[in-house]
Amino acid sequence: MSCSPKPQAACPASLKRMQVEVTAESWPIAGSFTIARGSKTKAETVLVRLTKSGATGHGESVPYARYQETVPQCVEALKAIRPQIEAGLTRIGAAKLGLPKAAQNALDCALWDLEAKSSGTPAWGLANLHPPKPAITAYTLSLDTPEAMAAAAAKSAHYPLLKLKLGHEGDVERLAAIRAAVPRARLIVDANEGWSPAILPEMLKACETYGVELVEQPLPAGDDEALRGLKRNTIICADESAHDIAGLAHLRGKYDAINIKLDKTGGLTQALALAKAAKAMDFKIMVGCMLATSLAMAPAFLLAQMADYVDLDGPLLLVKDRPHGIAYHNGIMQPPPADLWG
Known about the structure:
Layout lengths: L12 H4 L2 E17 L2 E15 L2 E7 L9 H10 L1 H5 L4 H5 L5 H19 L3 H4 L8 E2 L2 E3 L4 H10 L5 E5 L5 H11 L4 E5 L9 H10 L2 E5 L18 E4 L9 H4 L5 E4 L1 H4 L2 H13 L3 E4 L6 H11 L4 E2 L17 E2 L2 E2 L9
Parallel strand pairs: 5-6, 6-7, 7-8, 8-9, 9-10, 10-11, 11-12
Antiparallel strand pairs: 1-2, 2-3, 4-14, 13-14
Helix pairs in contact: 2-5, 7-8
């Protein structure tokens, strides 16, 4: 249906205003997912659907308790600004509303998708990027006993890059067992703030011994000064310590890389700006994710094109993905289908 310029017939209001849907979703995890802070069996997500003039855009996010965000909180925050969204809220305008970052992410990505669908220009084109190419993503192994993690590593040896969740007593034994099980695999580690300054030298030595390329957030975000000026042969990547451009200067001298997640930055718009600023300051880039479906991975995939490390394996850890999901084959991630996003 289209609106003609006939003076006697006004366009229906439904075609002028944005239609907004905000829903909470739950996606079962295949087994359980365990990190230093605990375990879970479901991925709890927020979905934003925007429809205007026959085009629909979608965005998905994961509110994270570590950052004092919850699904109900984000759903309510988005519903509270429904009038602004319906009136034509822009990505720049959305960033100024002080939304929880996960809520802002879902809205920002839905606005990107809607613009791509409405204009016929893919999101990478709207962002002035090159067409995306397949990328190697890490495959994550949950924290467990050395024996269990070694068995999981052996089962996952066909993945070119394994990410090990550590951060508890026995991590040296875990590293030894995993390296014995997969002698040729590339390894990265995520301690999720689980180490202390006291054990840091021992753990970094073990990482070097067992060929770990990168360690994410070894120390708590509020107690990471021990990293400043520390000599090491392993890349240290900020995750919980890295959120936005304003915080980059404070990370210099402590971290070699930053993990950019859209749920931390508040969406693709801010994530692209952060990646550009980080590269200008000579940080390596890792693009990461929370546990979610391909819809959350799709906008992050644009960042993967400029990243040194990619960790967008969320859908591989779920019982099932949503329709039109991203194709993965032995750790190689394909560009998202247009029917999914962007």
